Each structure stands twice: as structure tokens, then as C-alpha cells.
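# nightly structure sweep
# worker-07 picked up a monomer target from the shared queue
# config: single-sequence mode, recycle default, output format = C-alpha cells
# input follows
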Amino acid sequence: MNVKRAGGFVSRRPFLSVTLLCLALLVITVLGFGFGAATADDADLTPEELAALAAECPVKFSNPVFLEDVLEQLHCQATDLTEERLLEVTSINISGDNRLDDVSDLTLFPNLETVVIKGCGVRKIPDMSGFKDLRTVNFSGNRISSLKTLSRATGVEELILDHNRIRDISPLAGMQKLQKLNLAYNQVKDVQVIAQLESLQEVDLNFNSVAEVPFLGKTDIVSILLEENYLTDLSFLEGNEKIVTLNLSYNGIKDISVLRTCSSLEELYLYGYRTMDLSPLRDLEGFHSIFLSESFEREDNVDFMKDHFKAADKYTKIYLIALQRGIETYE
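# output follows
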């Protein structure tokens, strides 16, 4: 068919040809037609497909799940993955894959800077001493009980091990560059080794079995989370001038008067208590954020924060805003 335009007739056939060509390219893309050896660019490869890739690869993997992650990173074919190409791998990030019970293949990547293996059922961390550039290690949500293989990972700065089965953390003593440590949801009682970690700034010990942290004042820690442990006495916080963030929720604490000596304290979590005298917080110049249970008796107890609070739980925020506006009742 021809279309009449000003100046003459124009054929529509070229436009039809271009349209058909575009449709053909779209179909090829959607169906995933390609040429050459297999790659792992398509997500969710079956075990059979992974096995086929592993058979093509010059480097032998104990667990082909690692192979899948690496091929996606390097955008290469399995046949091209040599030991030299493995030197380019600086991070491993695998989550929720229950096929990854064996992580010994990590040693194939000597230049790793970040290792994230979460929720994969890992029971044992391989020897990490050979990774000179390793800075972040995350084995959250696994079945790890021993940290002995981490003892010589001296360059690590961030270590995340929450939701495991850890009791003994003494192997961490040599990690002098460690700045952030997450051990939440484990079975830790003795935390004395933390006193030896001179670079440590942030510690998460929520949901463990800690009864005291007597050395805390001798460290440079600015944030410590101790929710649902066995704390009853806060004397270990006496005169601490470095703590900025503190979580004491769901412990056996009845008195926080010692906190008046924590001059840098800005943020406090006290979930799990119905009543507590908060007056020791009044004279802390930088204190601005508090988080309390819904049932906490706020009236006349948090009033001192009405003009300078930055963050709070929902009900404390409602109460303080009501005070700011001169409203006598609040919901």
C-alpha cells in the first residue's frame, strides 16, 4: 500500500521491513538464543546446568554454586575461566542457597575483599589467613559454631556472624583492625576478648547470654547493642565518655543512674520495661533519641526531651509532639 503525502506517494514497505526485523530481534532476546559456550548470565541455573558448566571449566570447583557467581561477575564463558581470571574476583556474594554446605572454594580467589555467604547452612569457615585484602566477612544465618579459622584473618574490618551457633569468640583476639562486629543471635557468654580489639567501634551482641561487659570503659567502642541478655548491673558503664548508642532492651535492669556519667550518650533503647526513672538522662548535653515499649509510663518522665529529641518510638514521639503543641491529652 502507498500513502499519499504532500509532494507525492511514499511506500510503506521499508517501514514494514524494519518493523519485522525489530520483532525478530526481540524474539531472539526473549527466548535467549545465543552462540558459543554456556555462561551463567541466566539466573537460577538447574543442578544439571551447573554441572555442565563445571565440566567445561578449566578450574575445578568443589561446589559449582561458586562457579555460577563468578561467571556472572566476570561475564565470561566457563571455558574461558582460568586461574588468571580468578585473580579478578574481589567479592563473593551468595544468599539463601542450601547447596552451599562446602565453602572451601573461597581459597581459589586470593584477591577477595568481600565475602558474603548468608543463609546457606554453612557449618565451617575455611582458613581465611591467605586473603591479604579481605576487609568484610559476612556469614550471617548459617550453622557456624567455631571461629578458629578466622584467627589469622588480621586485616578484616567488618565481621558479621549473627544468627549462628557461636559460643566461643576468643579466636577473634588477633583481629586488630576489626571495626564492626555483629554477633547477634548466638550463644555468647564471655566477651572478654573484645577488650583486646583496639580498633573496634560498633558491637552487636543482641540476643546472647552476656551478663557483664566490665572492660567496656577501656575500649573505643561507640555503639554497643545488648538487647535480651542477662544484664542486671550497669556499673561497667561508669564514667564511659565514648558510648554514643546503647541498647539495653529486655534485660533485668532496674536502675540507669550510672548513665548520667556517660557524657557522649545520644541514643538509648529501653524496650521491654514498663517503668524506669529516666532523670539521669536529663543533663546529658547531646542526648536526643530514646526508644521505649508501648506500655512505658512516659508522663513526666520524658518531658525533658520535648525540645530537642531527634528520634523516638512511635508512642514517645506522639507524647513529645503533644507536649510541644501544648496538648494535655494524647493518643
